[in-house]
From TrEMBL:
It is found in: Secreted. Gene3D superfamilies: Haem peroxidase domain superfamily, animal type. The keyword NADP does not apply. Heme b binds at residue 359. One of its GO terms (cellular component) is extracellular region. It comes from the Eukaryota. This is Uncharacterized protein. Residues 1-17 form the signal peptide. GO terms for molecular function: heme binding; metal ion binding; peroxidase activity.
Amino acid sequence: MAISKLLILVALACVGADDIVCDVDAKYRTIDGSCNNLKNGKGASNTFFKRLPDENENNVIDYADGIGLPRAAKNGDELPNARLVSQAIMDEKLGPLIQRDRTRSAQKHVPSTYVAKRSKKTIITKVKRLESEQGEVTTTDKLLAEDAQNRDFCFPLEISKNDTDLPPGCINFVRATGKLDEEGVRQQTNLATAFVDASVVYGSTPELTKILRVSDSYLLKTEDNLLPTPAGVNSCFDPVIPTRCPVAGESRVAEVSMLSVQHLAWHREHNRIASELRTLNPHWKDETVFQEARKIVIAIFQHITFNDFLPLVLGQAAMKRFKLFSRDVNEGVFSDPYDVDMNPQVLGSVNVAAHRFGHSQVTNEQNFVDEDCNTVTVNKLEDVFDSPRLIQQNCGVNIPFIGRNLGCTASNRIDNFFVDAMRNRLYHKPESPPGSDIVARNIQRGRDFGVAGYNRWRELCLLEPMKSFDSFEKFGKALKELYNDIDDIDLIVGGLLEKEMGFNVGPTFQCLLGFQYERMKQGDRFWYERPN
Ligand code: HEM
């Protein structure tokens, strides 16, 4: 196809994806992030997570068989049982009595779920499905696909006889869907775009955006001024009141009520801004009003993420090192950080480890709080996972009470201690106990992705690798009993054991998150500070 002045062909960074035609002069970003980068096409939704190249330009990847089986120990044995690691290192009872972080309110940890990127999980995948997802496949591809299929087994979390909180046996855990790259190595797919583009509000696919929008209008759909609940689109669970599931740009919308309130706030903000724009510009087409409102929402979203949220995660020094702060508006000039060679793709190691730091900030309760910041109703987190009833009851009467909790209540510290609701009763349901353990899941997910061990990431971050288990002080003995080799320690385990002044993430996660956000900013052609 000829390349005209306006159109350019960009290959999507995904196996089997067709080239797409991009409008070089487009005023607005696409919904799925395609055509943002006109040179390398990176950052679209439904493309692979990124593997970091090492010093020799080889992808850093650590599968037991080199191509797809979950990571194993250096000596070839299985890595320690993820639940045992969770019990020995991450139990809140092992930590200080006061876990609350006085510098951060719950408001600060919830937005992180917002920018966290979504990977694709599957229940047992059939080769047929693999074929249909990838389109026509050759015979060799078919064999490889079958091979990939063999690796799509369940990878259950084993619970030992001595576990004090979960019954012995095993808990369901399904490997993230894998596809083979050109070298026949298993890769995982990011369902979201790589950009900080409010796709949690608008969705990462045009199909979802269509569901969220009022047709022939500039507005997003609402029901009684709450999030829409179209039948059959999402799944949620409520043991008390049968509820319809709210839909937003991201499927986790009903995971916990404080997160749902954030979704609702941004959803309403779009409609508020769009309505004002319509009043000011009656001659604009509906589509122009929608896109201009979206552009303003994304600008606010980017500004808050980089200037209010990230400094509390990374600390001032890392913010400056990775040039993450926006230019001070008082300087009177806009900054233009865009670099066409920056690849914004999300690192798998950020997805499965570094960005999951927020799980340690979650508290055991989702309380209702009055105007004086007093708790008026205690809602135990373990009772309200995935149940939107707190938001929907009586046309949303509880929303201000939940919203105030976000501002009034301190979140827990970023560390290696996790509340019981997350570590022993995650998604616990009365009719199907016992629930799960977020820590064990995170550890298992890292191995599932073939993410290298903690010490390898320290090396890549130009930090001194840990040489002795004693470096982990209080937890050194437990780690030594669990892991054969210090280089076997999982990234999320070592990363969360690092201490940092000011309660930010430690140096390894600072490096990974800083590296990631720098790319999300500099690799975004539509970054909000850019001229025009
Ligand atoms: C009560 C609050 C939360 C709950 C119940 C929750 C639960 C979960 C669960 C069940 C998963 C999938 C685990 C797996 O791999 O099998 C997950 C993934 C993830 N979570 Fe959370 N989470 C919460 C809050 C947070 C926060 C505050 C952050 C941010 C800092 C965060 C960041 C992530 C990331 C980055 C992923 C990986 C994204 C993906 O692959 O879907 N989460 N979370």
